[in-house]
Amino acid sequence: MTTLARATDTLTRDALTVLQPGFAGTTAPDWLLRRLGEGLASVALFGRNVSSPEQVAALTAQLRAEREDVLVAIDEEGGDVTRLEVRTGSSFPGNHALGAVDDVGLTRAVAAELGRRLAAAGVDFNWAPSADVNSNPDNPVIGVRSFGADTDLVARHTAAYVTGMQSAGVATCTKHFPGHGDTGVDSHHAVPRIDVDAGVLAERDLVPFRAAIAAGTRAVMSAHILVPALDPDRPATLSRRILTDLLRGELGYDGLIVTDGIEMQAIAGTYGIERGTVLAVAAGADAICVGGGLHDEGTVRRLSDALVEAVRAGELPEERLADAAERVRALARWTAANRPADGEPDTADGDVGLRAARRALRVTAAGDATALTEPPYVAAFTPVANIAVGDETPWGVAAELARLLPGTETGSFNGADAGSEALAAAGSRRIVAVVRDEHRHPWMAAALDVLLAARPDTVVVEMGVPRARPRGGLHLATHGAARVCGRAAAEAIAGV
Questions:
Q1: Whose CB among 15, 103, 234, 400 lies 3.0–4.6 Å from 304's, allowing a Cys bridge?
Q2: Is 260 noted as a catalytic residue in this protein?
Q3: Angle subtended at Cα 54 by Cα 336 and Cα 158, rounded to the nearest 5 degrees
Q4: What is the pTM (predicted TM-score) of this model?
């Protein structure tokens, strides 16, 4: 270890150890490096911290020069939720596409390659995979982040993902316990509620987590959801019944428990981040994720002070905080022991993501649909992105079609007049309409109605969950909006 924690007292060190904060910029600020010297054991990377894999490698080297055993965490699901490729779109198609293929060997290979790339950049802890069963088709925040709506399918692919990624020395964090798939509310904005009985939860939502635990997942992330059948009073992140009695006791899990972002409104808007942090650790959480929205030294100080004061006031047992901190250190020891050594043989499989995206593509042709040979007009019907996905990452098929059919033009549309506006913009060109979760957006379905009434040969590309019926001269379901999904669709449209 290059640098040992230098904080003056054990309590402060432990309070810093359980925090997993973010920061601004593509290099580590002085305050972050100083806190690493004082006991901070984890650092979280978000899209704002990434410009290239080489830059991330330099950044993680800077962090480890200050503290060799620091955990470097990232929210890199692949598919729609990517941080390592936030500016370009992901090289991996995401969970829903892998579930559509239903080849656990492929899922394992995709996760291993993604893990290899993370490890090469110095990242050793990934807040993925999502083990949520997407049982509510109107779910606004999970959708294509889930392997699917079938419990057994989700379970086997969650286990394969865990095995694949951890084979690269990157610890997985299976989420969002006890299952975020049956929600109609985004916990970034409010507290979702799941009103099903304990039997349904056990047979549907908990099964993939049991599979992840059996596969050896090193961490589990809690969800900010209220599940009255398990705890009628507190959301899972703050519930001892759910984190300690259920996850640790009934499911026998002994690894790290991490919260979802503590500054999400489901917690911050109800309890406040300081109180939420104390309650989460008291309930059984070992690490507090913070930094998606709040990413400054003041936040770290507020949360560490809240933990210290809670112990001194008798609201949080000192032994519970010490146990949480030791679990963080144990994970750091695991990642250090499993980190690929310099000079190890390169087992890269750079094309596995594209192969997976091609296999996930589902094409439905109407009549004598033919491939495009002339540059089309791509009309992207763009919904508001949820916070987990963000609006920084490009999506669609226009860039890939322009590469195959130079001269392709594109525009983005939304709202009540989206269909007529797209028709006017396209002129005489063949139209490729790109949608995302048509079944969840009435304005989007209406826009397609307008296009198809006037131009029945329109090609429709569905890049979300394909719940609406296939229509158009050619309909392509990609099961995700990653860059490789767009490429696979563009190849099919252009007949290459």
A1: 15
A2: yes
A3: 55
A4: 0.95
